[in-house]
Amino acid sequence: xxxxxxxxxxxxxxxxxxxxxxxxxxxxxxxxxxxxxxxxxxxxxxxxxxxxxxxxxxxxxxxxxxxxxxxxxxxxxxxxxxxxxxxxxxxxxxxxxxxxxxxxxxxxxxxxxxxxxxxxxxxxxxxxxxxxxxxxxxxxxxxxxxxxxxxxxxxxxxxxxxxxxxxxxxxxxxxxxxxxxxxxxxxxxxxxxxxxxxxxxxxxxxxxxxxxxxxxxxxxxxxxxxxxxxxxxxxxxxxxxxxxxxxxxxxxxxxxxxxxxxxxxxxxxxxxxxxxxxxxxxxxxxxxxxxxxxxxxxxxxxxxxxxxxxxxxxxxxxxxxxxxxxxxxxxxxxxxxxxxxxxxxxxxxxxxxxxxxxxxx
Amino acid sequence: xxxxxxxxxxxxxxxxxxxxxxxxxxxxxxxxxxxxxxxxxxxxxxxxxxxxxxxxxxxxxxxxxxxxxxxxxxxxxxxxxxxxxxxxxxxxxxxxxxxxxxxxxxxxxxxxxxxxxxxxxxxxxxxxxxxxxxxxxxxxxxxxxxxxxxxxxxxxxxxxxxx
Lengths: 361, 163
Fold this sequence. Notes:
The structure holds two protein chains of two kinds.
Chain A: H1 3-10, H2 12-33, H3 38-60, H4 65-101, H5 106-124, H6 130-185, H7 193-231, H8 237-248, H9 254-257, H10 260-267, H11 274-298, H12 308-350
Helix pairs in contact in A: 2-12, 3-4, 3-6, 4-6, 5-6, 7-8, 7-11, 7-12, 10-11
Chain B: H1 5-10, H2 14-26, H3 36-44, E1 47-51, E2 56-58, E3 66-72, E4 75-79, E5 82-87, E6 92-93, E7 107-110, E8 114-120, H4 121-130, H5 132-160
Antiparallel strand pairs in B: 1-8, 2-7, 3-6, 3-8, 4-5, 4-7
Helix pairs in contact in B: 2-3, 4-5
């Protein structure tokens, strides 16, 4: 082969890129293969992450590994599944109710838009058709709400099925994950064995702390908002709390986006008033203050550390192509990819394996 | 094809290398004063690898991920083409990497086909999290071994340059 091509292929950047693309391909294949049970797997992995510290504490107290897993699961799984079983139908019912109500708010929306039209005409010298705009908005909102409601109902069937599968997968993950991981790492060729482990450990450490940080952040935000909305009598408190927590995770845009759903719900309620809107905003402000002052500096220690332009463009594009879940997931995915590629590149730069073959015998 | 180290690595009979590794660790100063059950548990979490004659186990200057226990075969530890040590079955080497990821100060080359067990720094970290009492015994042993090496190196330096 051409020597210059060989040196190009041997360059750390080429090798890191090759390995990175191979890993991405494997992940993509895994996602395609496991698509029907992806939700079940995701929940099991989250349970595994939440329960493994407790399992370690029990092992430290000389309980056998299987016994530790069984004890932890006997306590935590019923609590988590019970909470899920209580919250999921509640949220599904609220989405369904919201989708039904959007049809009855058209008159209020037309009035609001007519006022806006008069104001725009007075100050900017152009106008729009309030009826047409209201109809299009109502159709769009009610269609989307109906789609979410239907998909949540179908997810409930999945969750019901997963109630059997999730504890089983979680049990085996808690008991055998490290063995399975070690077996997978055994597939590495000898010359990349140490490098593979160094890259894996470094990547796993960073991703674990990042995911744990944003999960705790979302949980705290969601809890504060749900309790606050409930306390001030704002409709759909758990649904809004969850939505605000998720939207708050989006960098740059999230801080503003998180305030929209509660305000919309208050404005579209049967008796919209300024005090409720102010209280809803106050709850989100309070939650964001707690987030900025206590949660971000103490829990989410490792920030995503991505360039602002990259984040803005990727959030905008992910939102356009993949909708709400694209908005929420794009930054964690980009961060994971960045960590993985950086660690591979660092590893390839430090490792320059030369193979020496001697004659056997 | 079936002789390739990858196949040997993948389809090692588990109990064989665990038994072999446990026996060898029982006689090694790094695992002194540790219960046999704990040693067996730890060995079962190590990573068996097979190398062909002439293959490098690790290279000088590369970051180390952990220590290596030689299960079978012979290995030469070399620095700048000079052999520093000739290792045989039961020898443990590269222990510095259990403490730090600093670059290796020598390279290890297989003189014959050999089987080794990698004891990684991350294994030690996981062990410290789940069984800190037993892990602290191993850390004391490791400190003693490394201190012994330092004293020996100081003695050699002093002997080379008495002034």
